[in-house]
Design brief:
The chain has 1349 residues and is of the alpha+beta class. It is built from 38 helices and 41 strands. A hairpin with a 5-residue loop joins strand 8 and strand 9.
Length: 1349
């Protein structure tokens, strides 16, 4: 078998002497011959590989290079990289690979074209496809999607099972093409599947990030050291007097003891400095200093640090530390046999402690009146002891001992008997107060500590690196503050009430431990003045970040699959470039196998040879339009196919009847009778359409439903503006999102397959109209088939350019665009727009989403353990209303109404005050005071479960205060009647306040102001329920004083009288104490609040002013003489009006705790912290709207297809002509069996194929000697063609067509042989000079008109 003649362009145009119009043809052919696709192959492959490798590298770099990575056990790692960005890069990589499959398979097409061209020249002739194989090959190269591959594999499997159908061997180029597309699709979908695995297996993780610290404005001075420069300045007396004492060696921390040094040696500068240093000590003790702060390390050692440390920083620094341990020696030292109301202490040598009982007995209410350093002889260095040596003289060892007697009402049982021990608390009860003698060991240390900012592992705060005993000098300086006088009385009240929640069940050891911690903190704070800053070391910045926990296996496999895809692309590109390097016309052959247009041009077009050699569009006219439907062959048989011209309406009842009935006998003995024809015509396409719609819609809706249900139903969610916070895990949210975008892209070819039914019905309908402009031309039909089969961006871009004004070739044609093509392009454009927008919004959703710590609530039942509210204990009130003590009090008839807050004849507040104190200082077992976000002080339970959120009712106090000191003190009218520390008070202005100056014999001024403005201090004896009697409204008014020692207004220790503080404190001449008067409006309210354990916060839900009765009960103990000292103890460093108001509210509601009992909550839920997801609502909504719009479009296309195809016969056959190239190849290369044209599926069109049916491709010569290019059958195939219609018609057909046969005879004769569907094409296999046979051609339009009208 000889190969078809090939053509080579002449090297010397002069030798051939071409015709004038042949110059352009020669140049065109020469260009087509020499045009190599190498550059296009390299560029496309380079882009695919570089982007694929670039995205893979970017993913690895983002995980491992730009962030901290820690290897966990197994195959897991943690990285500080954000999970959403990791997912975004991996998702983009998978999307890119999926989108580039058509491009890479197109590169493979160049290699296939080169192989076929080479085989057509006689080299490897078995590497040429047959008709059926060509259709399969073109489906692979043009479709390049999963549907095309499935169809081809189905065909190949069917042929393998039915060996009789095909005796021809499968050409290697077809096998390789099927394998190549399968490999590319497998790698693309494998990458996507592995990325799904990667998405699901990854998780967000709370991690700590450590970076070098960049100092800003000297923020590295985090250590502390003694300010020796300051000490040196006081090493000698400025007056030149020699004290003959160690005063200079203690940096003048305290004023000289007048019992040791003469007063005239204490200069004014020394006294002023004492005031300033004491003020700084006070501020440090209550954590209001701007220079110093006392904290505890991990080994419970108090250390001095700066008050502010930048967030997220770690460092090491040196400072001073103090460790204190205490034990109660009350049982060892108290004289239980003493009949004195006030206990006596005698330690009997063990421990070696000498207590001056005279001083203690003189002031039994003064907690801490015995307080000082204990020397080796047992003496106590107490500043209250005349003649005793000071602490810095007594403290000559490190550690040293310290002793104190504590007196408190907090540890008093209501039934406690005098002169007995209070349980195991270490307290001894006597004289209405419980006492405890504590002996403490105090160690002063040089501490090196590390500060670690909070991080994901839960470690934070201050950790001790080393701790060594300080020098004796440093120890002496710290011990000096013991004599400051700030540890006596109720100034030290906040150290007296034990650890939080201890109640009366506290043990002696527990109390001693809690006391030691607080006392040690305060003792170190009192020496803060002499310490200066020192630099820190090893500074690093840390931050808590939500990083990622990744599984390395799916990550590695995903990147391996992507790399394999890139390597496959390189191999395919190199193979194509190598094979096409020396083969001519590769690009032209590539166009014939990757687009249906050239095949359709061979079938139906009259294009002149110059157009054949070009890659661009060719001009077409109206007569080129094609129709589809039923035609009659020359032999009189009915067939279904594509032809030129209009198709008459089929009515099977008008067929010519044969003797045996109404039927058609077809070659091979097959018969199509009336019933079969009718059934074929009426066979609906609805089931197939609905199946495609169901599959495509399910693909899209299932992920949408999963996403919505998972985010909004399975998990809880809240919205804050455009931010959606959900407990759904980010990896699952983004996995479902990725599945949705993948499903949207997979649905595109399915929806175009649905549209093919609508287009087929429309084409069939238009084919009935003569000269209809709604039918496509060959070129337009090729575009339509490409759109439906390819359904990708490449096809859409090519088709859009074909129809756009930018296409210069478009101007050469006079054909309008048929609606089916325009609609197909519109449908594909919308589908691609929606699917790609889904990918874009998916990427946006990936980028904008982030893991967040989210609260998750779960139901929790009501029970006895959920009594977190508060209500008045009416049972208790009723009990005390009967006056259980049996004591009548005609002067105070209101006492029975006080619910036991005051009980006449039973030590008054013996029951209420201890519980009130415990509630105020958080040592109660039942109550404590908390603040809501709007400054209500409310009474709440002492403790809560760690996982609860509830709403409950309670009582609260809200206060507003302002200073009236300037209204009450007039320095110009001062008299000598001032009572230290108060000046003479005469309040003028509004509101009116009448203060009885005779009451100014204490250091507190505190009490309710009645309606006339008269105020009585709660400390004024006798103790009366003044507040309960005088309060007539809610809110009510109260005046209180605040004292400060050398406060912030007197930083320089000035002795001048006046207002030396921005806070309103007034200092009398020569006094280190300043006083401030506050006028407060106090409102008692019934509060409904929300508590959440996750934030430990209280939020006001609602509030109403309480009843007058409740208001009076809450304010009753303002007369107890306890509130004002407690407030001063807390606000030692000075207070603003707001500070005073808050503390007043806290003290007032806390002191009323005795009368409140638990109440059931209104609502309660369990709560847990989970890593949820922060989702931006905008991309999520756009994403869902886009997919929803695509579903609506799919439904619209489906409905249109069902409606159009419902009454149009043969829609399923016409649809096959749009979704498969096999019918067109069958028409072109025959032989045609009319009966097979009625079969569904392209496989049914072809009979048994053999080696004789292989096809060639390449340049050929026509009968007229013209040079052309195309696909031709072999000569053997031509010889085997049926002789009933056309002689040697391997490239001619058997179907006649009325319109084309109306063309004048000379045109037919010049064109050659009649085409299969009425088209006349060149006989590409006959040598020049061999006349074509045109016998048997009859004008079939007469038959059609006569029988099929």
């Amino acid at each position: 078998m000889a190969p078809p003649p090939s053509y080579s362009a002449p090297d010397d145009p002069k030798q051939t002497q071409p015709l004038p119009d042949e110059d352009d043809l020669s140049r065109t052919i020469l260009h087509a011959k020499q045009h190599r696709p190498t550059r296009a192959i390299i560029v496309i492959a380079a882009v695919v590989v570089l982007v694929g490798v670039g995205l893979s590298t970017l993913l690895l770099a983002y995980i491992f290079v730009n962030h901290n990575v820690h290897r966990l056990g197994g195959q897991a790692i943690t990285t500080t990289a954000d999970l959403q960005y990791i997912f975004t890069i991996s998702n983009t990589l998978c999307t890119f690979i999926s989108l580039t499959v058509p491009l890479v398979i197109s590169l493979h097409g160049y290699g296939v074209a080169a192989e076929w061209l080479e085989a057509s020249q006689g080299v490897g002739s078995d590497n040429r496809p047959s008709r059926l194989q060509l259709g399969q090959l073109m489906s692979i190269l043009q479709g390049a999607n999963i549907l095309s591959w499935v169809r081809v594999q189905s065909h190949l499997s069917q042929l393998t099972r039915d060996s009789k159908r095909q005796t021809i061997s499968r050409p290697p180029l077809l096998t390789r093409s099927a394998h190549t597309l399968g490999l590319l699709l497998a790698l693309a979908y494998l990458t996507t599947a592995l990325d799904f695995w990667f998405h699901i297996s990854s998780d967000s993780e709370v991690l700590a990030v450590v970076l070098p610290h960049v100092p800003v404005m000297g923020d590295t001075l985090f250590g502390k050291q003694i300010n020796w420069t300051l000490c040196a300045s006081y090493g000698s007396n400025a007056t030149g007097l020699d004290y003959q004492t160690p005063l200079g060696s203690i940096c003048r921390l305290i004023l000289a003891d007048p019992h040791v040094w003469p007063n005239d040696l204490v200069d004014a500068d020394f006294k002023n400095y004492f005031s300033a240093s004491l003020a700084e000590s006070d501020r440090t003790a209550v954590n209001t200093s701007t220079s110093n702060y006392v904290v505890f390390t991990d080994d419970q050692q108090a250390i001095l640090v700066p008050p502010y440390i930048p967030p997220n920083v770690t460092f090491e620094a040196d400072t001073v530390g103090l460790r204190m341990t205490c034990q109660s020696v009350t049982k060892e030292c108290v004289d239980t046999k003493s009949t004195n109301p006030v206990p006596r202490f005698n330690c009997h040598g063990s421990p070696n402690l000498i207590i001056d009982n005279k001083l203690f007995q003189a002031s039994p209410y003064m907690s801490g009146v015995v307080f000082g350093v204990v020397n080796e002889t047992g003496q106590v260095s107490n500043a209250n002891y005349p003649g005793y040596f000071p602490a810095y003289v007594m403290a000559q060892t490190n550690p040293f001992q310290l002793a104190t007697i504590i007196g408190t009402e907090a540890y008093v049982d209501a039934n406690q008997q005098n002169d007995t021990f209070v349980g195991d608390t270490g307290f001894y009860y006597g004289f209405d107060i419980a006492y405890s003698l504590q002996l403490c060991q105090v160690a002063v240390n040089d501490v090196t500590y590390r500060y670690g900012a909070p991080n994901g592992s839960g470690t934070s705060g201050f950790q001790t690196i080393s701790s060594n005993p300080s020098s004796l000098l440093t120890t002496t300086l710290v011990a000096t503050s013991v004599d400051s006088g700030q540890f006596g009385g109720l100034d030290f009240a906040f150290t007296q009430y034990g650890p939080p929640g201890s109640g009366l069940n506290i043990t002696s050891d527990e109390y001693s431990h809690a006391y030691a911690l607080t006392l040690g903190q305060t003792l170190l704070a009192m020496s803060a003045t002499i310490f200066d800053e020192s630099p820190a070391r090893n500074l690093q910045s840390t931050r808590v970040a939500l990083g990622s926990k990744l599984d390395l296996l799916p990550l590695a496999l995903t990147l391996a699959a992507a790399l394999a895809y890139c390597l496959s692309t390189i191999y395919i590109a190199c193979n194509a470039a190598f094979k096409s390097r020396s083969i001519d016309f590769v690009k032209l052959a590539h166009a014939h196998i990757t687009s249906p247009a050239p095949i359709l041009r061979l079938m139906f077009d009259r294009t002149e040879p110059p157009e054949i050699w070009k890659y661009s569009d060719w001009p077409e006219v109206q007569s080129d339009r094609l129709t589809v439907g039923v035609v009659r062959t020359r032999q009189g048989h009915l067939a279904f196919g594509v032809t030129h011209g209009a198709q008459p309406t089929l009515n099977t009842r008008l067929l010519v009847s044969s003797p045996s009935g109404v039927h058609e006998t077809l070659p091979g003995g097959e018969v199509i009778d009336d019933s079969t024809m009718e059934a074929t015509a009426q066979k609906g396409s609805t089931s197939a359409i609905l199946l495609f719609w169901l599959v495509s819609t399910t693909l899209m809706l299932v992920p949408v439903i999963l996403l919505v249900v998972y985010v909004f139903s399975i998990n809880s969610s809240t919205r804050d503006g455009s931010i959606l916070l959900t407990t759904a895990r980010i990896q699952y949210v983004l996995t479902i999102s990725k599945a949705l975008s993948t499903a949207a892209s997979l649905a595109v070819p399915l929806v175009t397959s649905i549209y093919a039914y609508s287009a087929a019905a429309e084409w069939l309908g238009s084919s009935k109209v003569p000269d209809s402009t709604a039918t496509p031309s060959p070129q337009q039909l090729g575009r339509l088939i490409s759109i439906i089969q390819g359904a990708n961006l490449t096809v859409f871009a090519q088709s859009l350019y074909h129809l756009s004004p930018f296409n210069k070739q478009r101007k050469r044609t006079r054909l309008t665009v048929p609606q089916i093509l325009a609609h197909a392009l519109l449908v594909l454009g919308l589908l691609l727009t929606f699917s790609n927008l889904a990918s874009v919004f998916d990427t946006w959703l990936h980028i904008s989403s982030s893991a967040k710590s989210v609260e998750q609530l779960y139901p929790r039942p009501f029970s006895d353990t959920t009594l977190f509210g508060k209500q008045i204990n009416e049972t208790q009130c009723a009990y005390y209303a009967t006056n259980p003590a049996g004591v009548t009090d005609p002067v105070h008839p209101d006492l029975p109404q006080l619910c036991g807050l005051y009980i006449p004849g039973v030590a008054d507040d013996v029951y209420s005050a201890p519980e009130g104190l415990r509630a105020v200082y958080n040592s109660s077992e039942s109550n404590r005071v908390a603040f809501t976000e709007d400054r209500h002080a409310i009474l709440v339970p002492a403790s809560f479960p760690a996982d609860v959120q509830y709403i409950a009712s309670t009582v609260g106090v809200f206060s507003t205060c302002y200073s009236i000191t300037s209204h009450c003190v007039n320095p110009a009218n001062r008299t000598d009647l001032s009572i230290d520390p108060f000046p003479w008070l005469n309040c003028t202005g509004s509101p009116p306040v009448d203060i009885d100056n005779s009451l100014l014999n204490t250091t507190e001024l505190f009490g309710v102001v009645n309606a006339t403005g008269y105020m009585v201090s709660g400390d004024a004896p006798p103790l009366d329920p003044w507040a309960y009697q005088q309060i007539k409204s809610n809110p009510f008014s109260l005046v209180g004083s605040s004292l400060v020692v050398g406060s912030s207004g007197q930083q320089n220790g000035s002795s001048e009288e006046g207002y030396l503080s921005d806070l309103g404190y007034y200092f009398t001449s020569g006094d280190a104490l300043g006083v401030n008067l506050f006028y407060c409006d106090v409102t008692v309210r019934d509060v409904v609040y929300l508590y959440s354990s996750s934030t430990s916060s209280f939020q006001t839900v609602s509030f109403n002013d309480s009843s007058l009765r409740t208001t009076r009960l809450v304010a009753t103990l303002s007369d107890s003489g306890i509130m004002s000292p407690n407030i001063d103890a807390i606000l030692q460093g000075g207070a603003s009006a707001d500070d005073y108001a808050l503390e007043l509210s806290r003290q007032m509601i806390g002191m009323s705790a005795w009368i409140w009992e638990p109440a059931q909550v209104h609502a309660i839920s369990g709560i847990e912290q989970v890593l949820g997801t922060e989702i931006h609502a905008v991309p999520l909504m756009l994403y869902l709207v886009t997919v929803g719009s695509m579903c609506i479009l799919t439904l619209a296309v489906c409905v249109q297809a069902v409606v159009r195809s419902y009454k149009v016969p043969f829609t399923h056959l016409a649809q096959m002509r749009l979704t498969s190239l096999l019918p067109m190849i069958h028409l072109l290369f025959g032989p045609i069996d009319a009966a097979r044209t009625w079969k569904e599926g392209g496989m049914g069109l072809f009979s048994v194929e053999s080696e004789a049916h292989r096809l060639n491709i390449g340049p050929i010569e026509t009968l007229k000697g013209e040079r052309s290019f195309g696909v031709t059958a072999t000569e053997a195939d031509a010889d085997s063609a049926p002789q009933g219609g056309l002689e040697r018609s391997h490239s001619a057909g058997e179907l006649a067509h009325s319109e084309r046969l109306n063309v004048p005879g000379p045109d037919i004769e010049e064109a050659g042989v009649e085409g299969r569907m009425g088209y006349v094409i060149p006989d590409l296999s006959l040598k020049p000079g061999s006349p074509p046979s045109v016998s048997g051609i009859e004008e079939s339009h007469g038959v059609l008109d006569g029988n099929l009208k």
